[in-house]
Design a protein that fits this description.
268 residues; alpha/beta; Rossmann fold; 8 helices; 4 strands; 8% strand
Length: 268
């Protein structure tokens, strides 16, 4: 039995854990979707779990931080058209997350981090967090994205790949080479990508909705050339170190600030 795994606890043990000051549950979330011809379908949830587990191993054992089983399937309509992509409808994922949040709130859990490894569902998980807080007023929900928290990590990737490598490019390939080199196949040749007019972009401040099939033959949006296990280890160290600091800060704080309605779950 692992005290860092909530699914390893009995219900009385979970109740005792949830009553500890600062107790924080973490739900790792990923996706099952194409990641080019060289990376596995489970790349996003493999990353979320690998980083989170290393964070939990490194932080002090008495820190009340524990994880739930990974939610592997996510919202990935942009990658349909490639074999292996599985996407849940947005409303299905929202309902599933709301059910998880409601169960945790009823068990006395007061803080939940959605630890997401899939960039295509960032906005949807932000919506989920708001809906969960509306329903479960006692539960603070923090929708965090694997690559957005720690500083100085993606800066390890040189431009233009840092900005243009949106999917299965050098960043993800290097990290997978560090974690599971046996799952990495031969790297595909780079292919030209569309260049939006000046000031516009596929993602970023002025994003566009896009389907991978319409802009990439291989499913790669970027160029994995130059990826290495050594670079991946630097990325991994930066992610784990940065998230250790952020999770420790969170657990030792009362953030988000307590709200009215503590202890209630709104019924529909």
């Amino acid at each position: 039995m692992s005290p860092r795994r909530l699914d390893h606890l009995s219900w009385p043990a979970l109740e005792r854990w949830a009553s500890r000051p600062g107790a924080t549950a973490v739900l790792p979330i990923g996706a099952v979707e194409q990641h080019g011809p060289h990376l596995p379908l489970g790349t996003d949830h493999l990353f979320a779990e690998a980083v989170l587990d290393r964070v939990l191993e490194r932080l002090p054992a008495d820190l009340p931080l524990a994880r739930l089983p990974v939610l592997s399937y996510g919202f990935s309509p942009e990658h349909l058209g490639f074999p292996g992509t599985v996407t849940l409808p947005a409303e299905t994922l929202l309902a599933q997350l709301e059910s998880v949040g409601s169960a945790l709130a009823e068990a006395g859990v007061r803080r939940l981090v959605l630890f997401n490894g899939h960039g295509g569902q960032i906005a949807l998980l932000q919506v989920a967090a708001r809906q969960m807080q509306q329903r479960c007023t006692a539960l603070a929900v923090l929708p965090w994205f694997l690559w957005s928290g720690p500083t100085g990590v993606i800066e390890q990737i040189p431009e233009p790949e840092r900005s243009q490598g949106l999917h299965a490019g050098r960043l993800e390939t290097s990290l997978m080479l560090a974690l599971h080199p046996e799952l990495v196949g031969p790297l595909p040749l780079p292919e030209p990508l569309p260049h939006p007019p000046a000031g516009l972009s596929l993602e970023g401040a002025v994003p566009s909705a896009w389907r991978t099939r319409s802009i990439s033959r291989t499913g790669v949006v970027g160029d994995p050339a130059g990826a290495s296990a050594e670079e991946g280890q630097v990325l991994l160290d930066g992610l784990v170190g940065g998230w250790c600091e952020l999770f420790q800060t969170l657990v030792q704080s009362n953030w988000p600030h307590p709200r009215s309605g503590i202890g209630t779950v709104q019924r529909q």
